[in-house]
Give the backbone structure.
Amino acid sequence: MSTTESSQFELVNPPEDGVSKVIFHPSDPNLLLVSSWDKTLRLYNVEKNELMKTIDTGAVALDCCFGENNTAFYGGLDHKLTKVDLETGKTEVIGEQNGPISTICYEAETDRVFVGSWDHTLCVWNASMKKKSHEVSVKHKIFSMDLRNKILVVATSQRKVFVYKTDDMSEVWQERETGLKYMLRCIRLMPNGAGFACSSIEGRVAFEFFDLSPEAQSKRYAFKTHRHIVQDTEVVYPVNTLAFHPRYGTFASGGSDAVVNIWDGENRKRIKSMTKFPDEIACVNFNYNGTKLAIASSYTFDEGQRDFSKVAIYIKNVADHEVAPRNQQSR
């Protein structure tokens, strides 16, 4: 079966190099922001399959996110946190780090941007004032972050996870070491606020819970995924990306095996394995109401520079039976 399923289509005018992030607008189910190694930021209307805007970022953008009032933020290899007006394309630098910016999150309630960098720091910038309010050394490169309901989770290069309550960035709320034995790739908060999931380069995903009681901690687990038998040998692939469904709490995982899986984490079951895509899965993201899933199929530079087949972004129209937990599906 090809990737041209009836519920799925390919966006026009994709980036010309690897995709670093796809992220839907927090309140518009059809607006998608895409950052890329081709030094562009692209805004799509996925319902119309239309490229609305292309912004030249000047350097490789490793992450991006929406801001308020038709704005967005991006950062990357030039060390700069940049704000862009998505209507006019005008950009302004909010601040600068001492190393490449790997991940950013925006908190609308406070107009703050949380910036993780390879310079081992977590910084908080006031977007309007263009002023840094906090700088925290985490002693390791920051690879991934997520922010939801005033909880910020930070995944670092030494498998450490730092959890902050954004109302008080003066101290770490929790410092965790996951059950994963190898380098972390992605971390995402559960929609119900109970904890987070994180993935690693050795084909595993871990579920962790904030409640430190023995009962809650007994529910922690990790499982193997994105592994295939090739000529009688198990080949293990990095799990590059995770995304929780906003209504059901199930989640999608994407790996360097070019496969996207949908999981029922609570019941520890796989709901769906999607058809193999042309290249590695760099990023996945559900829109805010869970009706669409964006899938970036592109080379992720796991093996340094090499030829790759194509860069493509697919939009899957999501049916409830594909993402609902097994115990909530109609019989």
About this structure: The domain at 8-178+246-256+280-322 is CATH 2.130.10.10 (Methylamine Dehydrogenase; Chain H).
